Amino acid sequence: MANHLCTEQDIRLTYRPLSEGVVVEKDVKAVMRDGVKLSVNVFRPKEGGRYPVVMAVSPYGKDQYLQNEAFRQVPSMQLGEMEISDHTAFEAPDPDFWVSRGYVVVQGDVRGQGLSEGDTGPFHKQDREDYYDLIEWAAVQSWSNGNVGLNGVSYLCACPEVAA
């Protein structure tokens, strides 16, 4: 089979607005152990309470939502039909899906990317400490029940240690 760039028929990605039951806190600053502030978006249920957290931290930008064009550049990519919320960051979990099921979603920018402070690099050694610190930060927030899980694709789920 010959490689080809995706056409409109290969990817039918539909965006829908976030549900009214989702509260969005954009560009929240989480302080790391060395004082650097990482920027995160928090999506949580409108109803007060403490919820488990689903987290993804990205070098691509927590506010990069439109995914069609990126996928069209991959040869032989055929994703078919998908519907996601218009606040789903690239390769990250859809906050609308998770919040509607009783979770908080935290999407963050790695150190030195987006609105996060500090220096960056691919698979930067500092990333693993920052991820640890972000997990600890999320676990003690007023909207968290202390349980934090990670979710993402590709870079978002790779261990920085293996490439260090």
Going across the biggest sheet, name each strand in turn: 2-3-6-4-7
Number of strands: 7
| Binned strand content | 25-35%
Instruction: Give average pLDDT, whole number.
Output: 83
Quote the distance from N terminus to C terminus: 36 Å
Give me the number of helical elements: 4
Q: Can you give the helix content as a percent range?
A: 10-25%
Topology pattern, helix = H, strand = E: EEEEHEHEHEH
Shape: globular
Low confidence ranges: 1-6
Q: Tell me about the biggest sheet? A: 5 strands, mixed
Secondary-structure class: alpha/beta
Radius of gyration: 16 Å
Quick recap:
By secondary structure, the protein is of the alpha/beta class. The protein has helices at residues 68-72, 95-99, 126-139, 160-163, and strands at 11-16, 22-31, 37-45, 51-58, 80-85, 104-109, 144-150.
Description:
The chain is of the alpha/beta class. Helix content is 17%, strand content 32%. It has four helices and seven strands; from the N terminus they run ββββαβαβαβα. β2 (22-31) and β3 (37-45) form a beta hairpin. The protein starts with 10 loop residues before the first strand and ends with a helix. Mean pLDDT is 83; it is low at 1-6.
List strands and helices in order, with pairings.
Layout: E1 11-16, E2 22-31, E3 37-45, E4 51-58, H1 68-72, E5 80-85, H2 95-99, E6 104-109, H3 126-139, E7 144-150, H4 160-163
